[in-house]
Each structure stands twice: as C-alpha cells, then as structure tokens.
Amino acid sequence: MKRALLTVVWKLRRACSLGLGVLILAFLVVPASAQQRPKVYVLSLDSAVGPVSAGYVVDGFKQAAAGRADAVVLQIDTPGGLDTAMRQIIQAILASPVPVIGYVSPSGARAASAGTYILYACQLAAMAPGTNLGAATPVSLFGGTKLPGKAASGDGGAAAGSQPPDAEATKVTNDAVAYIRGLAKLHNRNADWAEKAVREAASLPYDQALKEGVIDLVAPNLPALLRAADGRTVTLASGPVTLHLAGAELVHIAPGFRIRLLSALTDPNIVLILLLLGVYGLVFEFSHPGLIAPGVIGAISLLVALYALSIIPVDLAGLALTVLGLGLMAAEAFVPSFGALGLGGAGAFLLGALMAFDTPGYRLSLFVAIGATLFAAGLFLIVLAMLIRARRKPKTSGDTRLLGATARVIDWSDATGEVEVLGERWSARGPAGLVAGQPVRIAGRQGLTLDVVPE
User: Fold this and answer.
1) How far is CA 396 from its chain centroid?
2) Which of 336, 333, 255, 237 is nearest to 287 (CA)?
3) What is the DSSP letter of 335?
4) Tens digits of residue pLDDT in 315-353
5) DSSP 8-state class, residue 365
6) Peptide bond before 106: cis, by omega within 30 degrees of 0?
C-alpha cells in the first residue's frame, strides 16, 4: 500500500515537473517568436537633394539602426540636386549597418540626376511601374558645365578645326563617371549604362532598367516590394546579409517640423518672396521712420532669405542682377526719374531672378517670378503716381500760402495790431481804423509781420 502511494506521488511529481517545463518553455519561446517579426523603416526622398533632405535621410538611417530594423526602404522621387548633399546620402547608405532598398515610387516618379547615383548606391534597387531614372550629367552652378565633345575622326583623335573640350568640364564629368561606375560595380549593376547616363544624359523607363541590369526588381507597391526582396542576399560593409522581410512591420519616418520648415524656407520661390519683402520692408521703414512693423518684418525676411541663399545653389550674377533691380526700383522713391529707374529695375529683377535659380531641383517658377516683378512694379507705379500728384498740387506752405489769404483782426491800435490767419496768430500792420473782428486780406510779409488791407 505504501509502495503504491509512493508510486502515485512520484508520477504526480513527474507530471508537474513536465508541465512546469512546458510552461517555462512557452513563456520563453512565444515572446521570442513574436519579436521575430521583421521591421522595415520607410523614408521618403520626394524633393530636391539638398542639405535639408540629406539631413532627414541620414537621421532616418540612424533611427533605423537604433531601432534594430531589418531594412530601410528609401522611396525616391527627385529631379536631382546638389553634389555635396548627394554624396552625404550615399556615404550614409554605404556605411549603414541596415540594408537600404532604393525604391523609385509611386508611379510617375523619377530618380533623375542625383537620384540615379543614390539608387545605384542602395544595396537593392527597385522601381515601380511608370517610373524612370537617368540624366545624371553634372551641371555647374556658374555658367553650366559643357559635356566633353566626342571626337569626329575615326581614330578617336580631335577632328580638324574642332574645339578642344573644356578642361574643367572634362574633370567634373570624368569624376562623376568614376564615382557612379564604382557604385555600379559595388552591387553588380550595369556600369556601362551608368557611364552613359553621365556622359550622354541617358534615361531609362522601369522595364528597360530591369532588362539592362540597372535595377534589381520591379514592384507596384511596398508589400509587393518586400515580398520580392525576401530571401535576397545583399552586401553591406560588414559582409553579405540575407533579407527576411515577408510580413514585415512598416515604420514610416516622416520629416519633422524643423525639416518641413527648412525645406519650405529653402524653396527658391519662397526665397524670392522673402528677399522682396526684406528689401521693401527696410526701404519703407527708412523712408517713414517710427512705423516699426515694416522694419521688423523686413529685417527678419531678409535674414531668412540670406540663410537660404547660403545653402541652396544660386547663380551669383543672377543674384546680383536681382538685387540691382530691387535697388533701382527702391531708388525711384527717393530719386524721381519718372519711370527710368523703376522700369529698368523691374526688367533687371525679372531677368536676374530667372538666372539666379536655374539648377535642377531648385528652379524658380516662372509664374512666381512674374508675379513678384508685377508686385514690385506695382509699388513703383504707386510711388510714381504719388510723385506726379505732388508735383501738380499747388503749394500750401510759405509766402505762397499766406499771400491773398483772409485774416481776422484780433486787436488793433493805430496802424499795428494782431491778426489770426490759417489758425495762427501774427503781428500785422496796415491802415489805421481797423477794429477787432474785421476781416482783412494779407498783402505781404516782412519777416514776422504781415501787411494787411481791408477785405
């Protein structure tokens, strides 16, 4: 009996131990499996490549690394931008411990100029249907970079009478070619077409890009992209990594308020308006001291415009012409020329504004340029109309105002007394016999004494 009881107790103890082990294993395994769900961070490069957008992308990579993301999807839709900002993004991509998937989307998007380099730098390159990439020729900010001309002779030498290629343009283009070929070889993509995109500004639609080995895959949306990328092996700085992205959790990193604000303030259209407000606000304050508000608004606008001009590409000759135009139109208020300064300034302002902002991704809207010119010219016309009206208005000060005016005798004794004219009290002299309250007419003035005659 005792042995049977011990057997039952032993079996119960064994069952409890087994059940406890199963529970412990469940607690350990279930959370771990729940944490195995992949996490993908999504960034959007949907504007010109500049210092602001580069800062946003680099910060997004840092957040992805800190959040232990399995991959980063960089959605690209850009017309191009600055070389320095582009290289900053590419360096961050190559150094990222998290695989970066470049994805030109949505349909209708493009990865032009700097966007092509960035897509080539990504560990995995993808495009949505209806997108394109290319036109990666470098453009100088100071007068434009000419493409080195191709030799016309059959042996590759310069043809007789042909102009030698510009040395600076050749250096810039060759540097860009070497850079993009290096990125292509890093991820086994078509390096020959990459060179063609730089030297000949070639472009490709999404299907041709896939066919020629420029990109790795085509996907209509993010879920399809992750399914297509699942199981692929990419190469990071630390070595090859296999992507496991099926059913991944998407974490969208939107630009913060600071990034959105700086992006708006560095828009060439906003910069031109701020420059206009700044100059005219200060001019109005200087011409009418004490109003305060125009001076404050003008100073703030001008400083913000100068900040934006320091970080975006701008043609210096065009900027100088823009400032000259503003100066000429403002000078019309102080040195009346009856249209010469104002019209010349309006023309210089419009031409300079179009010249100053002519870099891909940072071009000025023609409507904004014309609207700003019309606004400035409208102010000039208002000032001109006021000047013409002032010239035609009769004088209302000095002797011209007093002579012939009617006065009233206040006090009179013999041939002298005091009169009131135009609300002012004057000493006067005239014929004897005048009485208080009698109207008289001003006939002349000698110093501070008026000559009066009976009205």
Assistant:
1) 52
2) 333
3) S
4) 888 888 888 888 787 777 666 666 677 778 888 888 888
5) P
6) yes
Cα distance between residue 205 and residue 162, in whole Å: 34
In our burial notation (b when 16+ CB lie closer than 10 A, e otherwise), range 44-76 reads: bbebbbbbbbbbbbbbbbeebeeeebbbbbbbb
Per-residue CA distances from 175 to 78, 182, 267, 438 (Å): 22, 11, 29, 96
Query: Which amino acid, residue 284?
Result: F
> How far, in Å, CA of 351 to CA of 219, rounded?
44
Average model confidence (pLDDT) across the chain: 80
Length of the chain: 455
Fold designation for 399-454: OB fold (Dihydrolipoamide Acetyltransferase, E2P) (2.40.50)
Question: Which sequence spans correspond to the domains of the chain?
Answer: 35-146+168-258, 266-392, 399-454
Helices 167-186 and 191-199: angle between axes, nearest 10 degrees: 150
* Per-residue CA distances from 244 to 32, 99, 217, 363, 381 (Å): 16, 11, 16, 41, 67
Name the phi and psi angles at 249, rounded to 5: -85, 125
Report CA 138 to chain centroid distance, whole Å: 20
Sign of the Cα torsion 384, 386, 387, 391 reads positive
Identical fold at 35-146+168-258 and 399-454? no
Instruction: Give the dihedral of Cα atoms 209, 210, 216, 219; nearest 10 deg.
Output: 100
Amino acid at 141: L
3-class DSSP state of 45: strand
Handedness of CA 387, 391, 393, 395 (dihedral sign): positive
Superfamily of structural domain 35-146+168-258: 2-enoyl-CoA Hydratase; Chain A, domain 1 (3.90.226.10)
pLDDT computed for residue 43 by the predictor = 94
Mean pLDDT, to the nearest integer, of 99-116? Answer: 92
